[in-house]
Amino acid sequence: MRHPSRAAWLFASVLTVAAPCAAAPAEIADTIHATKPYGTGTYGLLVVTAYTAQLWTDAPRWSMDAPFALTLHYDMGFSTDDMVSRSLREMKHVDPAAGDAALTAYGQKLAKAFPPVASGDRITALYVPGQPARFYRDGVETTRIDDAKLNADFFGIWLSPNSSAPSLRAELLKDSCAITPSAGGSGR
Asked: DSSP letters along 136-170, please?
């Protein structure tokens, strides 16, 4: 009996992994009409992928002046505490001037946005200028955050020139020039 080749297994694996990321999340359909992500990238811990990130926008070029959404498709589980503490560390990296009081307040708000996730879960954050950012887990709204500074620092984790993952930022923004020499590191 003939066994499938490695290439066939690899192709099947790629299709299986890519399938959940193929369509726009339903929760953004009233705001963003793109049929494919503006940019996609992965973030890993050592050699394991933690999540695949997708940036969605109808704008010809991403900016905080136009609606956009960031979707994270998780490949491993994280607790609320893990996600909040990591987000706060990354937000401090994006904005070194953020004080302890502000970060404490951010943490309380982000805890509502991040229920625990398991492999296969999806978190989407939808940003519309002048409105609270809306957070969803698997299409169900978890919270709205009406704090412009928090929202800028939060989305900056992935989109700011100060991101600690410049390769991921470049993939999301479709721009190899998005990697700043001083940032170092990579999205993996």
From this structure: EETTEEEEEE--HHHHHHHHHHHHSTT-S-HHHHH
